[in-house]
Design goal:
heterodimer; A: alpha/beta; 5-stranded parallel β-sheet; 5 strands; globular; B: alpha+beta; 434 Repressor (Amino-terminal Domain); Beta-Lactamase; 19 helices; 6 strands; about 10% strand
């Protein structure tokens, strides 16, 4: 059975590309474009990996991260943060809040696929 | 090393310049001493800056050397000395062993190099200020932050779709066209965002440039000691036309007269000033000279000098007497000279953040340009008691004594429930000169020990120190 990736991203063109990529890599991808819905989906659907954009409407990525890490259902959920903010403090904030990885835009497709493979399949590059 | 007092150094330019000029024209000390009817040993003391000179002796020496008094005792050199003295104590030069005690000699012997150093330091300061502004903007400006985010998002979308097209040659035609279309959409959106960003940065650059030519305008006012005879003359004539000028206010009428009658001479003056270089500086100089002209019409110099002496330079009484704002009186007082029989005044204006936003300097009063002034100055305290004239008797580490008069006033429109934003006007005068004014301190009045700024102040024990002194 295919591993499931939840993609929380509000930029439709990025969603389209990442969905194509992850689908080609053999993952089942679900998408949420709103922060609150993404939080609910992460808690109720128990995906294998969450790709979480920082700038989301309703609830931003850091808040989602904080709430997930304080909920026993998502304590071990691998979370890859995705953001256009690449400053050191953003990275530190994300890692302090419990993100497993921090990828900045613009990214290479291979970075995303490698991150998902690493956390979903336990492969370490 | 104890730092030399700027006041003393200012006068020491003159001796060095006399010595240099005498040698240029081929006189011995004895030749020149004979011409000006003083002893060679006295001339020697003057040339080595051991004796101060001014007035008729300065004039005689200047004439004997075919120079004007201004050439020997130039206001611009005084400002140059202040600037270089401050530069010499900048932290970045601390380890270089800059011979700050020989600054006046540098100006006297190598004026071009001295001006060059000051210009470079000014450029460096402007560049640093701009870099700080840009850095703050990059970190905190919501527009920039949002725009950069949008750009990176668009670039990420383009890059991802383009990589798919390159790395997955088996993508079906329909999907390939879809990704091509995404790239097209995102590149157009990126272009719009980039254009908006470029336009924003252009505007930002223009608005920052407004701050940089202040020095150019200030140089003009310092060089002229805040006095423009070519405006004062015609302005005094125009002042007669103010009578029966109701219903419009005197100030409005004075502005109208300035625009009609004095615009041309003001333009001519600006064009002839070597200090005014940039277009923005010209605009600022025009504004400053128009304000000067309005004041000159409202307070004709001769009448003003007379009334000011009569009212013992009381800024509130003068404000009443001429029906002008107190700040206009403060400005006008700086135009008075000893030839008017008046004390010399300096003027400073600071905002609530403590930034000095205008200054018309006074000889001997070191006003820092590269750091905040001493927080103990009444300039800053006056905002605790707005609309009240406060006096402060101060002693600088050099031994120089001044009397400061400060008054905070709110600036801009206000109303019930609306905030009031205060600025402070401050007049400075030497304590010796204060005796001609209503502000003459009682001999028993408290003398407050202040400094120019923390960096330039040796008072180590001061509780208000925020930076270490650079001189030991």
């Amino acid at each position: 059975m295919a591993k499931r990736v939840l993609l929380a991203e509000d930029e439709p063109n990025i969603v389209e590309s990442l969905t194509f990529l992850l689908d080609r890599a053999g993952y089942e991808v679900s998408v949420e474009t709103d922060g609150r819905k993404a939080l609910n989906a992460a808690l109720s659907d128990a995906p294998d990996v969450l790709i979480l954009d920082v700038m989301l409407p309703e609830l931003d990525g850091y808040e989602i991260l904080r709430l997930l890490r304080s909920d026993s259902r998502a304590t071990n959920l691998p979370i890859v943060m995705l953001t256009a903010k690449g400053q050191r403090e953003d990275r530190e904030t994300a890692l302090d809040y419990g993100a497993d990885m921090f990828i900045t835009k613009p990214f290479a497709n291979s970075e995303i696929v490698a991150a998902v493979e690493r956390f979903a399949d336990g492969r370490v590059n | 090393m104890e730092k030399k007092d700027i006041l003393q150094s200012q006068s020491s330019i003159i001796g060095t310049r006399i010595r240099q000029r005498r040698r240029e024209v081929g006189y011995t000390q004895a030749d020149l001493a004979k011409k000006i009817d003083i002893s060679p040993s006295y001339l020697n003391l003057i040339e080595w800056n051991k004796r101060r000179i001014a007035g008729s002796l300065l004039h005689k020496i200047a004439s004997a050397l075919s120079l004007s008094s201004e050439d020997l005792d130039g206001a611009s050199e005084k400002r140059l000395l202040e600037t270089l003295s401050e530069i010499a104590h900048l932290p970045s030069l601390g380890a270089l062993g800059v011979e700050s005690e020989r600054t006046s000699e540098l100006i006297g012997r190598f004026p071009g190099w001295a001006r060059g150093l000051a210009t470079l330091a000014r450029s460096e300061r402007e560049a640093t200020m701009r870099a700080q502004t840009l850095s703050d903007r990059l970190s905190n400006d919501p527009f920039l932050s949002e725009t950069v985010h949008r750009m990176l998002t668009r670039i990420a979308a383009i890059r991802s779709a383009a990589e798919i097209l390159v790395e997955y040659p088996d993508v079906e035609t329909e999907q390939r066209e879809r990704f091509n279309s995404l790239i097209h959409q995102d590149s157009r959106a990126l272009s719009d965002v980039a254009e908006a960003l470029a336009s924003y940065l252009d505007k930002a650059e223009e608005s920052e440039r407004v701050h940089t030519p202040l020095d150019e305008v200030e140089t003009l006012f310092v060089a002229r000691e805040n006095r423009f005879e070519e405006i004062d003359g015609p302005a005094a004539e125009l002042a007669r036309l103010l009578i029966d000028s109701r219903p419009i206010s005197r100030r409005e009428r004075a502005r109208e007269l300035t625009e009609k009658q004095l615009s041309e001479p003001i333009e001519l003056m600006i064009e002839r000033q070597p200090q005014i270089i940039t277009a923005v500086a010209k605009t600022r100089a025009r504004r400053a000279l128009v304000d000067y002209a309005i004041a000159a019409i409202l307070m004709p110099i001769t009448e003003f000098a007379h009334r000011a002496a009569e009212l013992r330079y009381d800024i509130e009484a003068l404000s009443e007497a001429f029906s002008v704002e107190i700040e206009a009186v403060c400005h006008r007082l700086t135009a008075l000279r000893s030839s008017d029989g008046a004390p010399r005044f300096g003027y400073l204006r600071a905002n609530a953040a403590g930034t000095i936003i205008e200054m018309l300097g006074l000889e001997g009063l070191a006003i820092p340009r590269y750091a905040a002034a001493c927080p103990l100055w009444v300039l800053y305290r006056a905002q605790q008691s707005p609309e009240t004239v406060m006096r402060q008797r101060v002693l600088f580490p050099s031994g120089a004594r001044f009397v400061f008069i400060a008054r905070a006033r709110h600036q801009g429109a206000t109303g019930f429930g609306k905030p009031r934003h205060y600025v402070t006007d401050m007049l400075a005068m030497k304590e010796d000169d204060a005796r001609y004014t209503v502000y003459a301190p009682d001999p028993s009045a408290i003398v407050e020990e202040v400094g120019p700024s923390c960096r330039l102040c040796p008072r180590r024990a001061c509780l208000h120190r925020v930076e270490d002194p650079l001189s030991e």
